[in-house]
UniProtKB/TrEMBL annotation:
Active-site residue numbers: 262
Family label: Belongs to the aldehyde dehydrogenase family.
Biological source species: Streptomyces cacaoi
Top-level taxon in the UniProt lineage: Bacteria
Annotated Aldehyde dehydrogenase domain residues: 29-487
One Pfam family in the UniProt entry: Aldedh
Keyword flag Lipid metabolism: no
SUPFAM superfamilies: ALDH-like (SSF53720)
Keywords, ordered alphabetically: Oxidoreductase
UniProt name for this protein: Gamma-aminobutyraldehyde dehydrogenase
Amino acid sequence: MVQRFDVSERFAAGTQYIAGKTVPGTSDLRLTVVDPATGAPVLGHRAAGAADVDAAVRAARDALPHWAGATPGERSDAMHRWAARLRELAGELAYAESLQCGKPRKLSEEFDVPGSLDNVSFFAGAARHLSGVAAAEYSGEHTSAVRREPIGVIGSVAPWNYPLQMAAWKVLPAVAAGNTIVLKPSELTPLTSLMFARAATEAGIPDGVVNIVTGTGGEAGEALVAHPDVAMVSFTGSTAVGRRIGEIAASGPRAAKRLHLELGGKAPFLVFDDADIEAAAHGAVAGALINSGQDCTAATRAYVQRPRYQEFVTAVADLMRTVRLGAPFADGTDLGPLVSHAHRDRVAGFVERARGYARVVTGGEAPGGELADGAYYRPTLITDAPQDSEIVQQEVFGPVLAALPFDTDDEGLALADDTPYGLAASAWSRDVFRTGRAAREIRAGCVWINDHIPIISEMPHGGYRASGYGKDMSAYSFEEYTQIKHVMTENTGAVRKDWHRTVFGDR
Ligand code: NAD
């Protein structure tokens, strides 16, 4: 389904999408989108500076009264048309996503694009469902009702690992709820966010409802987060940048903006001794390598009960060796390059340092030959790493899995929680009491039982602890982009209300 097109021609007018128009950035900085499979430049463009961010926020502010005042049904209809337009563009979106990220085409075609399209349909439906406590006379003398209202202009900053899905997760609940938005995608991967926004205009969503600024975090990102007309900041990215964004959002003239932070992860993969080891090994390899391991919920730490540990390590290593590295658009490619050469070198650095204290069972190198120019890295399994080592504790964000043994169930569950992160986890067992305990006790925003990775529009995605707070997807995410107003109407018309005696007079 991948449909190629000329990227330079498509983005000749620029890479900022403001008030329904594509315009060039005005920063002095020039950025280049690079194909990580070859290192070749794909698109050179002028980045967004503070003036572009200001123009985008103004466009969003101007569009707000009309969009917030539309009926839920009108917003829903417009979003259904947007979904239809995106379905027409599915092949081009898959092409651009694979080109800028290096994803194998089957991943873009079967996961990124359909998942994002399903999100549009889901939030088009959610727009009509404003949930809350029923209006009633809870005090006896007043009618209490809840209004669920949009928040205003949302400023959103997204990472490079799933650019289209991240744009969908940020933009859709916001606009479904009647807000308008300015999104800054990662400077590495702006293409599909721009196509996503342009499709909104083509579907009849008013100008200024969805705006995209493409620039760096330090320049465009900080200007957006700090902008006084941005009422809420929604961020997905690393924990370190999330903390910085929290500081900016809490200060300045518009202090205490609402914050939504989806941060890093270091998901444990807990295998009990009664598990189906063949299934667990397949799950671990797929869960660790999806998107070349550049997935915030990827399986990164496999804890395996000691009697089955060696069997698991052997099965995972064997399976990893069968995974075919290759060019993103080539037939038969399972795994593409990482997003950039700099990121590949960062991942390789983790593995090189691990050689000093652990064992690299398979992988641990960049391939040569035809793939030597790309940002490729071989699937890597590491054993014998101490629990407190950096490969076990820190987010590597590459195709690297560490495996460690444990003895008792108590120990396995404690190890699963033993990092600052809490985004996702999985538990593998045929015993419902064991999996039930894991589901209850692991402190993470998602616990899979006998699987690892699947997500779905209807269910929330988001972290505990250093993985942030707030949910993407699902009705929970829609609610986060609304604010609740209690309207309390006195029904008796009495001059002296009963409660007035607390201020003057006696009963
Ligand atoms: P990153 O934190 O480096 O960058 C994310 C975004 O923030 C980019 O658009 C970047 O330009 C911007 N940014 C950087 N500094 C900024 C600043 N000072 N002010 C404003 N914006 C700034 O993350 P990344 O490397 O792009 O993505 C990988 C990270 O994202 C990983 O940590 C991963 O776990 C996380 N992630 C989390 C989820 C989730 O749902 N929790 C999903 C995907 C990715």
